[in-house]
Amino acid sequence: MKYRVCRPSEHQAQAKEHTMRALFIKEFQELKRDRRTLAMIIMLPLLLLLVFGYAANFSVDHINVKVLGPQASSTVSYLKSLPGADKFNFVADTSASPSPAQAQKLLRSPSGDVVVIPKAKAGTLSERVDVYLNGAKLFTAQSAKADLVQMQANDMRTQLKQLSAAATQAQQAAQGLRTNPAQAAQAAQAAKAQSQKLQALAKQAQETNTNWIKVEFNPDLKTSWVMIPGLIGLVMAVIGTLITSIGMVREREAGTLEQLAVMPIKAHSIIAGKISPYFMLAIVDMSAVALAGVYLFDIPFNGQLWLFALAGVLFLGVVLGLGVLISTVSQTTAQAVQMAIMTIIPQTLLSGLVFPLESMATWVRCIGYLLPLTWFVQVSRGVMLNGSNAVQLWLPLSIMALQCVVLFGAATARLTRSLRSI
Question: Which residues form the ABC transmembrane type-2 domain (predicted)?
Fold first, then answer.
């Protein structure tokens, strides 16, 4: 009977092969059991693809324009007739006062993009209207300004053609009336007037004049002025959600959740005790980032401090409630961190912090409106840049308050169920 003698190198190769196969099978079995991680591995690339495909767009195709004063209706008709006016949604308000103060008041509301005040019934676009842009909406203001300048150029080009044709007709008429000196003199004078208008308009067309476009709240359209107020919310979202999400999980992993279950306190008291340190830490971070933005980047603070503080407290309540809810449904720290990151990524991309909401697809914009950072960004920019008051910001404040109640209610109910099952 013959025996096959294996060399040491063959034994090592076989052992390595068996070990790798065992590790391969083990990892797949662990992934199969950890369905949350498996779902994140599969869904995250698709989510990022959809988000960047439908949301990563800096061009704004829908801009709200409100025209004020008694001439609002006729001005809207004139503006709609200009080439390039398709992306503007014009609304005539004949009862509103056509004043700069009223324009600023309208621009302080979250829906205020552009306000137009008529000033003449004839002439080019720059001679007929004054335009006020909301500089706190950076990409909307940039897009609107570029389109308005192009509309002005197109309007001048059209009027140049009309004046050129009128001047030619006047000259031909003057030449045809040589037999009648009086009429010929009048026709020559009319032709001279048309020629002077043509020369003046041609000179005006060569000069780029944007004095009729006034940018409010961010005159130089600085990116930092728009980003810093939103970054305050992002910092609070990361700290509040990520750190709080591992709170209950650590109790479960340390085996102390059973001790909490037998203590004579209710779930909402446990949650309040767990989040209090994180709440105070987030308040300190919010204050530090806000002060750094104001003093290092020269960002104005035109609003009321108490309103900004109220918005910060409401937003902190939302993100802390979200973190506690994640903590109650996660079994391990890794799961909690993964779920927290899954909530932070869409808030960063779909809240209007990086990409304007107006440029997103409708269904993506609807998702953005469900995210708490969307509403804090509106309040933060509104208070710091626009100087908006509580009446103008009642909607985002109310939505954050509602989200805070819903998330803490869901977290309390989930924790109560977990404690009863122990």
Answer: 182-418
Q: How far apart are the first and last CA of the chain?
A: 63
> What does the pLDDT average to over 319-337?
87
DSSP letters along 116-172, please? Answer: EEE--SSS-HHHHEEEEEETTSHHHHHHHHHHHHHHHHHHHHHHHHHHHHHHHHHHH
Helix axes 333-350, 247-254, angle to 10 degrees: 170
Would you say how long the chain is, in residues? 422
416 burial (CB, 10 Å; 0-12 / 13-18 / 19+) is middle
Higher-pLDDT residue of 194 and 70 is 70
Do β-strands 114-118 and 88-93 pair in parallel, antiparallel, or remain unpaired? unpaired
Q: What confidence score (pLDDT) does residue 23 get?
A: 77
Q: DSSP readout, 309-332? A: HHHHHHHHHHHHHHHHHHHHH-SS
Compute CA distances 317 → 30, 49, 344, 406, whole Å. Answer: 35, 30, 15, 11
Integer Cα distance of 360 and 353 in angstroms:
13
β pairing state of 129-134 and 213-216: parallel
Q: Please check the confidence at residue 401 and state whether its pLDDT lies above 60.
A: yes
Which of 395, 358, 359, 361 is closest to 376 using CA atoms?
Answer: 395
> How far is 224 from 218, CA to CA, in rounded Å?
10
DSSP 220: T
What b-and-e string marks burial along 231-266, b requiring 16 or more CB atoms within 10 Å of the CB?
A: bbbbbbbbbbbbbbbbbbbebbeeeebeebeeeeee
Exposure string for 115-128, b = 16+ CB within 10 A, e = fewer? bbbbbeeeebbbeb
Mean pLDDT of the chain: 82
Give the predicted TM-score (pTM) of the model.
Answer: 0.80
| Distance separating alpha carbons of residues 96 and 64, to the nearest angstrom | 16
Task: Tell me how many degrees the CA angle 151-155-158 measures, rounded to the nearest 5.
Answer: 140
